[in-house]
């Protein structure tokens, strides 16, 4: 896939209003003493441990969109703490947000927060992760089953390129409490299961990683490798898990010999791809997701109806949730450049130290 397939959203050149940034939170909008009551939007991000994207991309793009629209906003990060997640939500509702946007830590906590917001007349949006059994009015994400399909196809391509014969494939799924992890698995298992049944691949160890914890992922994969020393491919559900796998393979001097997948197109993941240690990642243009969420939240805060392009089934709540779904893109060594060209990561971030020569070789000038 070339650069033309990565669509970028053009942002209007508007004056930026002042913002106050603190550890784990950001707010901006109405000046002290203003008589004008503006819409106010609250956003709760999940953590900064499972993926770098929440702080490096989502916070940035959401904040920029809210500033450009001139609305009040408050963006905070629960840092993986469920109690803190609920406390932040309570504070935001008390402060008078019109709209609450959440990335749940699990559906139980998310469901409670959404119910309280609804009882206070606050409009709600599930961002990136659907809260099962929840009451969010809208959902904005990527086609997460398609993400998993790209991962399964990517691992198959890399195994084929290596001319692997009946490889043992290990799988590190995402958190069992994250509905997205379930959707990713549905996608990649849809690709891999027929290959197991035909005997083309051998199904190896398959385990979920609690809370997307990278340290646990490393321990889990070490145990997998002990039980199946001849693992020949790894379906890792995101770049963080993939990097944990690569660290173990590196100790065994097998990095680059065992294809490993990822997701999120993080700087670390892209560097692993350039180095030949990771076979692919999935790029989700977070700016498009954040911009779509901001547009929807601003409409709701102004009392207007939101615009969607899909509906997603909540199997637990037995309801169809109006949704905005964006399209993911597979990234291999030959199109890492597209992620840089799209502005998601910068050359300065990616092409440091030993990666400078690898970037030049990949056409990243």
From TrEMBL:
Subcellular location per the Swiss-Prot or TrEMBL entry: Cell envelope
GO CC annotations on file: outer membrane-bounded periplasmic space
Keyword Signal recorded: yes
One of the record's GO molecular function terms: carbohydrate binding
InterPro entries: Bact_Solute-Bind_Prot2, Peripla_BP_I, SBP_2_dom
Organism listed in the record: Streptomyces mesophilus
Pfam families named among the record's database cross-references: Peripla_BP_4 (PF13407)
Chief localisation class: other
Name recorded for this polypeptide: Sugar ABC transporter substrate-binding protein
The keyword Transcription is annotated on this UniProt entry: no
Domain Periplasmic binding protein: 41-305
Signal peptide span: 1-22
Keywords attached to this entry: Signal
SUPFAM superfamilies linked to this entry: Periplasmic binding protein-like I
């Amino acid at each position: 896939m070339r650069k033309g397939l990565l669509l970028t959203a053009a942002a209007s050149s508007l004056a930026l209003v002042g913002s106050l940034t603190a550890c784990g939170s950001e707010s901006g909008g109405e000046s002290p003493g203003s008589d004008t009551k503006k819409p106010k939007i609250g956003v709760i991000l999940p953590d900064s441990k499972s993926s770098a994207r929440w702080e490096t991309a989502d916070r940035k793009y959401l904040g920029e969109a809210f500033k450009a629209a001139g609305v009040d906003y408050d963006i905070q990060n629960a840092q993986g703490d469920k109690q803190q997640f609920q406390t932040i939500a309570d504070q935001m509702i008390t402060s008078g947000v019109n709209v609450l946007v959440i990335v749940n830590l699990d559906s139980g906590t998310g469901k409670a927060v959404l119910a309280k917001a609804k009882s206070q007349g606050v409009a709600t949006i599930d961002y990136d992760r659907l809260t099962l059994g929840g009451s969010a009015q809208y959902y904005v994400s990527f086609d997460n089953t398609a993400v998993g399909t790209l991962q399964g196809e990517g691992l198959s391509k890399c195994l084929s390129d290596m001319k692997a014969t009946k490889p043992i494939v290990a799988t590190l799924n995402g958190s069992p409490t994250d509905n997205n992890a379930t959707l990713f698995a549905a996608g990649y298992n849809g690709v891999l299961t027929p290959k197991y049944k035909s005997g083309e691949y051998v199904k190896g160890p398959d385990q979920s990683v609690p809370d997307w914890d990278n340290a646990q992922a490393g321990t889990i994969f070490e145990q997998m490798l002990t039980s199946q020393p001849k693992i020949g491919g790894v379906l890792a559900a995101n770049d963080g898990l993939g990097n944990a796998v690569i660290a173990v393979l590196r100790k065994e001097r097998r990095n680059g010999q065992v294809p490993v997948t990822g997701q999120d197109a993080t700087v670390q993941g892209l560097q692993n791809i350039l180095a030949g240690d990771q076979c692919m990642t999935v790029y989700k243009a977070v700016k498009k997701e954040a911009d779509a969420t901001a547009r929807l939240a601003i409409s709701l805060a102004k009392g207007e109806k939101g615009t969607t392009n899909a509906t997603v089934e909540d199997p637990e709540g037995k309801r169809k949730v109006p949704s905005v779904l964006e399209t993911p893109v597979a990234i291999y060594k030959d199109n890492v450049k597209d992620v840089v060209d799209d502005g998601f990561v910068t050359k300065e971030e990616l092409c440091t130290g030993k990666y400078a020569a690898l970037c030049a070789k990949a056409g990243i000038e």
